[in-house]
Design goal:
4-stranded antiparallel β-sheet; Gyrase A, domain 2; 60% helix; alpha+beta; 19% strand; 2 domains; 171 residues
Length: 171
Amino acid sequence: MSLNTLTAQVRNGWQAAWARRSPREQQLLGIGFWVVGLAALWVLALAPALSTWQEAPARQALLDTQSQRMRQLQAQAQSLQKPAAISRTDATLWLEKSLAELGPNARISLQGETATLSLQAAPAAALAHWLSQARDHAQALPTQAQLQHASPAGSDPAAATWRGSLVLRLP
């Protein structure tokens, strides 16, 4: 049996069933088909589209925020990959000016491409911050460290201090 004959038989069956109905039943069935059709149209096409349209501003704001954050991270990554060149003179000036945060006994001596930092009782937090800033502002990287814990035994860990020397490679 071919598809055309099967389709024709189904169509003839529906037409015969429709013809057996009274005009009132035909009218009610027609209204029912329209209601079911409109409900299906609403559920399958219009409601999802309306929901998406209503959620769009909030999603767009979220995507804008995420996009802005991604651009910031990209700019930060690019700046870390290719730091701006700094002259050795500028680097040494920054290193000398910033010693005050390491305490009054911090000294720096310059020897060619290296700088040696000598410390006596430098606060640990200040030293960590200074090393980070030295990397960022002077592009000076530690190559050697000989540090000893200089805080008295039993003292507050937040008040830890260091003494010794650090050798930094200059740009």
